[in-house]
User: Which sequence fits this backbone?
């Protein structure tokens, strides 16, 4: 064991260094975006600026993967793993073995692609004319370190009592589970490898025209891998690989790495880590705490009192975050203790917070809308504009629910808040100025045509840093932690997007999306009937997948159907966000429910019950959107026309 310590230290140091390098790449994205923006404003040309930022985006994504994995920040559907009891170690060995295969597969072809680019002197097609092997080195290095991290954890589970990267979240005593000896664990890993090899051999060479068979295989493999606890991004790579070997003759590895590189080095995608970073800065400074103090004197006068701070706080923070989890964590940490102290019913505190935090997905800047826009190739600025009015309407519906509770349950009202005079309330409101100013700068720069979404994200990061510095809550520790937090979240989303891009390519080669769209078209569903069917569909898959996974996983199939039905893709983006918001608060895999569980220590079933009325309000919001589609389309049409 003593001899193993230097190896452990070297590996952990490698993963940490990789994460720090990814953080440096994220800072480079910010610098490149700002340089590009300043050059454009001054009438100059920054040749290749967008391409360089895309390369830095790829470097951030790949270099942070191992660091993110070691911090248990990659998403997995671990329900069956955590409920497997005596079979827990066997389930983890299954997950880590398949994850290792996917990660090694990715690393092998990343290295091959980089070496090929260097050998043939492949040049970027953009203005920069960069030899592609140079940025692809970061892809290869990051993928190799990621593969080392996954295999390292598999070896530790086989040879020690290590419980995996999620060990800190598990209180299970592994002395009660099966496979005590190292030899039995090694034999199990060998058996898993043989089973996977046999399954891959059985999956090759199917009839390309067998549509029903394709659907059956894709769905079975997808839900089997996701349901058994494989990390979402790696599971998607596995599903796509099965589709490629089963229904095409093209080399799956070469097709995968070209797709993965293209999707990860996108200029449009650079807005994602910057908005995440902005939210991390606000979360780790006193800006969010000041926001509560500024809102409280005014909202205490409305029926329902300070419960409205959950909704209004989430609405305001959503306008500078874009992440449901960041919104929930930030507002929850400031509001839950305050509302408990004042005697508000806990089920109302938790329920309204769970629902209102989903506004982070709709009110711009929204990470889900960015991912949706990139996936369907629609204007992200238009999508951001489209989300404003529906987001405010949904926030208003949440507040009406609180007002209804106030009048229907008078016995549960807390003691009235001490009266705060108008002058004192105005004085407290000055604490809102920094956050409101940041909202105006970020959103106004986009809507005014001064900045693209990526440039607006850069505005947000710089603005958040300046405000935190002026407030005195920005330290080197805060800066570093916000940066590393942003790299972890960015890498998690990037891995899912890579897997989804490869899955979309695989499905395209098999002809499944076209065949499925033709099959559904035979039913001659009206647009409203199609939307009703998709609502049910997304509610069901949302019970098992996080929002971003649900979007990228289904768009390859859904997009052709929507276009064929003549449904506006901007409107559909807002519809998608509403139904994905529902997925955040529906068990068993409601992401917001898990975040609240960790914050409140309540059972997940209790938290799900408190969020049920908010789920019903979101269903009503879908009906409102269908009845009044102008809620989503009026603002982007109006502003762009001007």
Assistant:
């Amino acid at each position: 064991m003593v001899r193993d310590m230097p190896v452990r230290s070297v590996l952990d140091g490698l993963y940490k260094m990789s994460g720090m390098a990814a953080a440096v790449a994220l800072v480079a994205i910010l610098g490149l975006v700002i340089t590009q923006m300043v050059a454009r404003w001054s009438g100059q040309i920054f040749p290749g600026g967008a391409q360089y930022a895309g390369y830095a985006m790829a470097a951030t994504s790949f270099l942070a993967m191992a660091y993110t994995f070691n911090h248990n920040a990659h998403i997995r559907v671990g329900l069956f793993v955590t409920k497997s009891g005596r079979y827990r170690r066997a389930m983890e060995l299954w997950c880590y073995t398949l994850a290792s295969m996917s990660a090694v597969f990715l690393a092998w072809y990343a290295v091959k692609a980089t070496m090929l680019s260097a050998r043939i002197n492949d040049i970027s097609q953009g203005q920069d004319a960069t030899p592609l092997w140079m940025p692809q080195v970061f892809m290869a290095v990051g993928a190799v370190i990621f593969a080392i991290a996954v295999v390292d954890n598999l070896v530790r589970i086989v040879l020690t009592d290590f419980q995996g990267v999620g060990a800190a979240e598990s209180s299970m005593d592994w002395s009660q589970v099966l496979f005590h000896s190292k030899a039995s664990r090694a034999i199990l890993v060998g058996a898993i490898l043989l089973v996977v090899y046999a399954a891959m051999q059985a999956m090759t060479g199917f009839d390309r025209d067998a549509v029903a068979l394709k659907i059956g295989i894709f769905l079975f493999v997808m839900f089997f891998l996701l349901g058994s606890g494989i990390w979402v991004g790696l599971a998607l790579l596995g599903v796509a690989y099965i589709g490629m070997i089963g229904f095409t003759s093209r080399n799956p590895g070469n097709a995968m790495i070209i797709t993965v590189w293209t999707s990860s080095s996108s200029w449009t995608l650079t807005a994602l880590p910057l908005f995440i970073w902005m939210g991390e800065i606000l979360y780790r400074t006193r800006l969010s705490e000041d926001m509560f103090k500024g809102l409280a004197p005014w909202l205490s006068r409305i029926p329902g009192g300070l419960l409205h701070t959950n909704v209004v706080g989430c609405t305001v923070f959503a306008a500078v975050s874009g992440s449901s989890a960041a919104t929930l964590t930030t507002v929850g940490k400031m509001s839950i203790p305050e509302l408990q102290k004042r005697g508000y019913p806990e089920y109302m505190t938790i329920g309204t917070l769970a629902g209102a935090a989903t506004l982070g997905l709709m009110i711009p800047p929204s990470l889900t809308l960015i991912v949706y826009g990139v996936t369907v190739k629609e204007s992200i600025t238009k999508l951001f504009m489209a989300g404003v009015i529906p987001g405010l309407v949904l926030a208003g519906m949440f507040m009406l629910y609180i007002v209804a509770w106030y009048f229907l349950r008078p016995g549960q009202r807390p003691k009235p808040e001490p009266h705060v005079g108008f002058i004192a309330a105005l004085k407290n409101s000055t604490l809102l100025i920094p956050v409101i100013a940041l909202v105006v700068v970020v959103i106004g720069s986009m809507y005014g045509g001064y900045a693209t979404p990526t440039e607006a994200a850069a505005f947000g990061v710089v603005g958040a840093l300046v405000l935190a510095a002026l407030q005195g809550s920005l330290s080197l520790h805060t800066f570093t932690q916000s940066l590393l937090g942003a790299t972890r979240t960015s890498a998690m989303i990037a891995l899912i997007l890579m897997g989804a891009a490869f899955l979309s390519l695989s499905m395209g080669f098999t002809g499944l999306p076209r065949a499925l769209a033709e099959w559904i078209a035979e039913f001659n569903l009206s647009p409203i009937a199609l939307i009703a069917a998709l609502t049910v569909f997304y509610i069901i898959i949302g019970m098992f997948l996080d929002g971003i996974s649900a979007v990228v996983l289904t768009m390859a199939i859904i997009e052709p159907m929507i276009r064929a039905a003549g449904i506006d893709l901007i409107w559909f983006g807002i519809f998608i966000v509403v139904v994905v918001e529902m997925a955040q608060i529906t068990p068993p895999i409601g992401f917001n429910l898990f975040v609240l569980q960790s914050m409140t220590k309540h059972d997940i079933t209790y938290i799900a019950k408190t969020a049920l009325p908010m789920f019903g309000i979101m269903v009503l919001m879908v009906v409102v959107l269908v009845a009044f589609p102008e809620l989503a389309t009026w603002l982007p049409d109006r502003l762009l026309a001007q």
